[in-house]
From TrEMBL:
It comes from Flavobacterium cheonanense. This is Crp/Fnr family transcriptional regulator. InterPro entries: cNMP-bd_dom (IPR000595), cNMP-bd_dom_sf (IPR018490), RmlC-like_jellyroll (IPR014710). Residues 10-112 form the Cyclic nucleotide-binding domain. Gene3D superfamilies: Jelly Rolls.
Amino acid sequence: MNPLIKQLKKYGNLTSEIETELNEKIKSLIKQKGDFLLKEGQIVSNLFVIEKGLVRSFYNINEREINVWFGFESGILGSVMPLFFSQPSIENIQFLEDTTLYYISSNDLESFYKSSQEMNTIGRKMAEEYCKILEERSFLLQTHTAEQRYHWLLKNQPEALQRISLGHIASYLGMSQETLSRIRKK
Protein backbone atom coordinates (compact mmCIF):
# COMPACT_ATOMS: atom_id res chain seq x y z
CA MET A 1 0.00 0.00 0.00
CA ASN A 2 1.13 3.53 -0.75
CA PRO A 3 2.82 4.90 2.44
CA LEU A 4 0.90 8.19 2.33
CA ILE A 5 -2.45 6.46 2.00
CA LYS A 6 -1.48 4.13 4.84
CA GLN A 7 -0.85 7.15 7.08
CA LEU A 8 -4.05 8.91 6.02
CA LYS A 9 -6.01 5.78 6.97
CA LYS A 10 -4.78 6.16 10.55
CA TYR A 11 -7.06 9.20 10.77
CA GLY A 12 -10.16 7.70 9.17
CA ASN A 13 -11.65 5.37 6.59
CA LEU A 14 -11.25 5.80 2.85
CA THR A 15 -13.52 4.35 0.21
CA SER A 16 -11.85 2.29 -2.51
CA GLU A 17 -12.80 5.05 -4.98
CA ILE A 18 -11.02 7.76 -2.97
CA GLU A 19 -8.03 5.48 -2.46
CA THR A 20 -7.79 4.91 -6.22
CA GLU A 21 -8.04 8.65 -6.91
CA LEU A 22 -5.37 9.36 -4.27
CA ASN A 23 -3.03 6.79 -5.83
CA GLU A 24 -3.29 8.69 -9.11
CA LYS A 25 -2.29 12.00 -7.44
CA ILE A 26 0.47 10.84 -5.08
CA LYS A 27 4.06 11.02 -6.33
CA SER A 28 7.36 9.81 -4.88
CA LEU A 29 10.67 11.57 -4.38
CA ILE A 30 14.14 10.35 -3.43
CA LYS A 31 16.58 12.83 -1.85
CA GLN A 32 20.17 12.57 -0.66
CA LYS A 33 21.54 13.34 2.79
CA GLY A 34 22.26 17.07 3.04
CA ASP A 35 19.75 18.08 0.35
CA PHE A 36 16.94 20.48 1.21
CA LEU A 37 13.25 19.82 0.76
CA LEU A 38 12.54 23.46 1.50
CA LYS A 39 14.47 26.62 2.33
CA GLU A 40 13.24 29.68 4.16
CA GLY A 41 11.34 31.93 1.77
CA GLN A 42 10.34 29.16 -0.62
CA ILE A 43 6.84 27.87 -1.21
CA VAL A 44 6.60 24.07 -1.41
CA SER A 45 2.95 23.30 -0.87
CA ASN A 46 2.89 19.53 -0.63
CA LEU A 47 2.00 17.12 2.14
CA PHE A 48 4.70 14.45 2.54
CA VAL A 49 5.18 11.15 4.30
CA ILE A 50 8.59 9.61 4.87
CA GLU A 51 8.87 6.01 3.75
CA LYS A 52 12.57 5.73 4.61
CA GLY A 53 14.97 8.29 5.99
CA LEU A 54 15.14 11.28 8.30
CA VAL A 55 14.63 15.04 8.02
CA ARG A 56 14.99 18.02 10.29
CA SER A 57 13.27 21.38 10.36
CA PHE A 58 15.19 24.41 11.54
CA TYR A 59 15.18 28.20 11.63
CA ASN A 60 18.19 30.39 10.89
CA ILE A 61 18.40 32.99 13.66
CA ASN A 62 21.43 35.31 13.75
CA GLU A 63 23.52 32.79 11.81
CA ARG A 64 22.52 30.05 14.27
CA GLU A 65 20.40 27.02 13.37
CA ILE A 66 17.54 26.28 15.76
CA ASN A 67 16.13 22.78 15.24
CA VAL A 68 12.35 22.64 15.56
CA TRP A 69 11.41 19.06 14.75
CA PHE A 70 12.67 15.82 13.26
CA GLY A 71 10.74 13.63 10.84
CA PHE A 72 11.19 9.87 10.96
CA GLU A 73 9.74 6.98 8.94
CA SER A 74 5.94 7.12 8.58
CA GLY A 75 5.94 10.75 9.68
CA ILE A 76 3.66 13.14 7.86
CA LEU A 77 5.23 16.52 7.22
CA GLY A 78 4.95 19.76 5.38
CA SER A 79 5.70 23.38 6.12
CA VAL A 80 2.55 25.01 7.49
CA MET A 81 2.88 28.45 5.88
CA PRO A 82 3.26 27.20 2.27
CA LEU A 83 1.01 24.16 2.66
CA PHE A 84 -2.04 25.83 4.19
CA PHE A 85 -1.59 29.54 3.48
CA SER A 86 0.43 29.67 0.21
CA GLN A 87 2.96 31.90 1.99
CA PRO A 88 6.76 31.59 1.97
CA SER A 89 8.20 29.21 4.51
CA ILE A 90 9.82 30.50 7.68
CA GLU A 91 11.61 27.18 8.18
CA ASN A 92 14.15 25.03 6.38
CA ILE A 93 13.68 21.28 5.94
CA GLN A 94 16.85 19.30 5.33
CA PHE A 95 17.52 15.59 4.85
CA LEU A 96 19.74 14.02 7.53
CA GLU A 97 19.76 10.68 5.72
CA ASP A 98 19.03 9.50 2.19
CA THR A 99 15.25 9.68 2.16
CA THR A 100 12.30 8.36 0.16
CA LEU A 101 9.11 10.41 0.38
CA TYR A 102 5.60 10.22 -1.00
CA TYR A 103 3.60 13.42 -1.46
CA ILE A 104 0.42 15.06 -2.66
CA SER A 105 0.05 18.71 -3.66
CA SER A 106 -1.97 21.03 -1.47
CA ASN A 107 -4.23 21.78 -4.46
CA ASP A 108 -5.06 18.09 -4.90
CA LEU A 109 -5.48 17.69 -1.14
CA GLU A 110 -7.85 20.66 -1.04
CA SER A 111 -9.89 19.16 -3.88
CA PHE A 112 -10.23 15.92 -1.90
CA TYR A 113 -11.27 17.88 1.19
CA LYS A 114 -14.03 19.60 -0.82
CA SER A 115 -15.30 16.50 -2.59
CA SER A 116 -14.99 13.91 0.18
CA GLN A 117 -16.33 14.15 3.72
CA GLU A 118 -13.98 11.29 4.64
CA MET A 119 -10.93 13.21 3.46
CA ASN A 120 -12.17 16.41 5.09
CA THR A 121 -12.43 14.56 8.42
CA ILE A 122 -8.97 13.05 7.93
CA GLY A 123 -7.54 16.52 7.24
CA ARG A 124 -9.19 17.92 10.36
CA LYS A 125 -7.87 15.07 12.50
CA MET A 126 -4.34 15.57 11.13
CA ALA A 127 -4.57 19.30 11.94
CA GLU A 128 -5.82 18.51 15.45
CA GLU A 129 -2.91 16.14 16.04
CA TYR A 130 -0.47 18.78 14.78
CA CYS A 131 -1.95 21.33 17.22
CA LYS A 132 -1.54 18.84 20.06
CA ILE A 133 2.11 18.22 19.15
CA LEU A 134 2.80 21.98 19.00
CA GLU A 135 1.16 22.61 22.37
CA GLU A 136 3.05 19.75 24.02
CA ARG A 137 6.36 20.97 22.55
CA SER A 138 5.72 24.55 23.67
CA PHE A 139 4.82 23.34 27.17
CA LEU A 140 7.94 21.17 27.32
CA LEU A 141 10.29 23.97 26.27
CA GLN A 142 8.71 26.56 28.56
CA THR A 143 8.17 24.54 31.75
CA HIS A 144 10.71 21.69 31.92
CA THR A 145 14.35 21.74 32.92
CA ALA A 146 17.04 20.76 30.43
CA GLU A 147 17.35 17.37 32.11
CA GLN A 148 13.59 16.79 31.96
CA ARG A 149 13.56 17.69 28.27
CA TYR A 150 16.36 15.17 27.62
CA HIS A 151 14.48 12.43 29.47
CA TRP A 152 11.35 13.28 27.48
CA LEU A 153 13.34 12.73 24.27
CA LEU A 154 14.69 9.40 25.56
CA LYS A 155 11.15 8.26 26.29
CA ASN A 156 9.37 9.63 23.21
CA GLN A 157 11.98 9.57 20.43
CA PRO A 158 14.71 7.12 21.53
CA GLU A 159 15.81 6.53 17.91
CA ALA A 160 16.87 10.19 17.74
CA LEU A 161 19.99 9.53 19.81
CA GLN A 162 21.19 6.84 17.39
CA ARG A 163 20.48 8.79 14.21
CA ILE A 164 20.88 12.50 14.94
CA SER A 165 24.01 14.43 15.90
CA LEU A 166 24.27 15.71 19.47
CA GLY A 167 24.51 19.28 18.17
CA HIS A 168 21.15 18.96 16.43
CA ILE A 169 19.60 17.28 19.47
CA ALA A 170 20.89 19.97 21.84
CA SER A 171 19.42 22.69 19.62
CA TYR A 172 16.09 20.84 19.45
CA LEU A 173 15.99 20.56 23.24
CA GLY A 174 16.83 24.24 23.69
CA MET A 175 20.24 23.81 25.32
CA SER A 176 23.92 24.00 24.51
CA GLN A 177 25.82 20.94 23.41
CA GLU A 178 27.91 21.23 26.58
CA THR A 179 24.79 21.11 28.77
CA LEU A 180 23.56 18.07 26.86
CA SER A 181 26.92 16.34 27.36
CA ARG A 182 26.79 17.03 31.12
CA ILE A 183 23.25 15.64 31.35
CA ARG A 184 24.20 12.52 29.40
CA LYS A 185 27.13 11.82 31.73
CA LYS A 186 24.80 11.62 34.76
